[in-house]
Amino acid sequence: MPQFDAIATQMLEAALAASHVILKHYQGHIAVERKDDGSPVTAADAAGEDIIISKLAALDIPILGEESVAEGNIPTLGERFFVVDPLDGTKEFIKRNGEFTVNIALVEHGVPTYGVIIAPAKDTAYIGTPGGAFKSTLEGDKPINWQQIHADPNMKCKIVASRSHAHGAIKHFLDEAGPCEDVSVGSSLKFCLVAEGTALHYPRFTPTCEWDIAAGHAILCHAGGALIEATGGKMRYGKTETDFLNPFFAAAASPALAEKCADIMRRAIEKVR
Known about the structure:
This protein is of the alpha+beta class. Helix content is 34%, strand content 28%. The chain has helices at 6-26, 43-56, 66-70, 90-95, 169-177, 189-195, 210-222, 255-272, and strands spanning 32-34, 40-42, 63-65, 80-88, 101-108, 111-119, 124-129, 132-139, 142-148, 158-159, 181-182, 201-204, 208-209, 226-229, 245-246, 249-252.
């Protein structure tokens, strides 16, 4: 059993509490509304974020939450803040395929240093801290059997992509990357597959926001993987000037593979322009 520090423990407890409530919504009637941008939202999204905010409030660290931002509540961000997506994969939640997650990250000086991802319907939890990346199964609301996970840059080529979003450049990416098995999955679980050595590449050709990727970014990096912008630059957090939208990015099982992935992505993008 790994010994998590106080900040990691608090984040984990907040994510588990939100997961418990979200799972109750999942098992009942799901009423779907639309945000201003047309994306779906459910009562579970708001309920999960409310719980997370209440659990983290005592730490007196600004919280950048997806639902709060949608309502126009944007905190003043310093060099240390939480990034929260209470229900990532809302489309998967509505489809009831189980591929949705609760995500909390701590960003320090523009870098996600801690990340927690819970997949309530799959009874699975992931956490990334400076001490490493770990996975556990859930027994009720309690994580058990924590195991350290590692990305595997030597595995055969397996690519993970979004179930609900597609892009024409994927075909060109696969043409150049060579024979590569598709192990697609929804939500931030894509990062977890790379972090635990089940996938090699996660090229992202469609828009995301910071709360979609921060927790997965932290877990992946602490497992030995890497995430960079498709341009090759470092992914930065706290991008108020872009309304927290991210550029396309390459996530992979090692820093060298992330650079290779980004190179192929740039050429693939040129072919569909």
